[in-house]
Structure of GTP cyclohydrolase 1:
Amino acid sequence: SLQTKQKHIHKDAQYTNVQQGEDYLNSWNHSDVEVKNLKNSVETNKLPCIEKFYLTILSELGEDAEREGLLRTPLRAAKAMQFLTKGYKETIRDVLNEAIFDENHEEMVIVKDIDFFSLCEHHLVPFFGKAHVAYLSNRKVVGLSKIARIVEIYSRRLQVQEHLTKQIAQAISEALEPAGVAVVMEANHMCMVMRGVQKINACTVTSVMLGKFQDDPKTRSEFIALTGKN
Ligand SMILES: [Zn+2]
């Protein structure tokens, strides 16, 4: 019907706005005031709405949503889901503000074994593991803890491991303009472990190499030697 069609169009329009907002917040070249204003408009409190839908999900699964153990579950689940996807409300700009320093020498910076936790966008179940990040500084450097924060921002969203790996590499590349970036991620996907194929020990490895890590065999082999990751 026409009404349904309009609803769909409305939904798509909303999605596009949020997506554009996201892209805008994640890009690097905007004033603080611009970013703050847009962020406030994107960050409205959705908790009661998400809670309501979790209540529906429980009932539709055949549960008695009124039983004692489940009374506060929709609210808890809504809060948990907001926490697990809090990366949507954070930007690289927030993290790196005033944390970038000038250095004169070019050197390889490596942060190994960064724990990350994400949700697969196909099943909304967790995948998690370790990220290894390296960059070849070109004047700009950043505190090591900030690298872990960048991994966190992109992990705490609905993700596909390949996109996640690429987004982290691109964010570092844009922010630090280094001579090269390497990101390797190893993860276990609960959607593979707990359902369907049930491959308990299957570990998925993804990597993105940019700049000298891609072009210069010496840089790449130095990275592989230092991390043991290819
Ligand atoms: Zn999945």
The two ends are 54 Å apart (CA to CA).
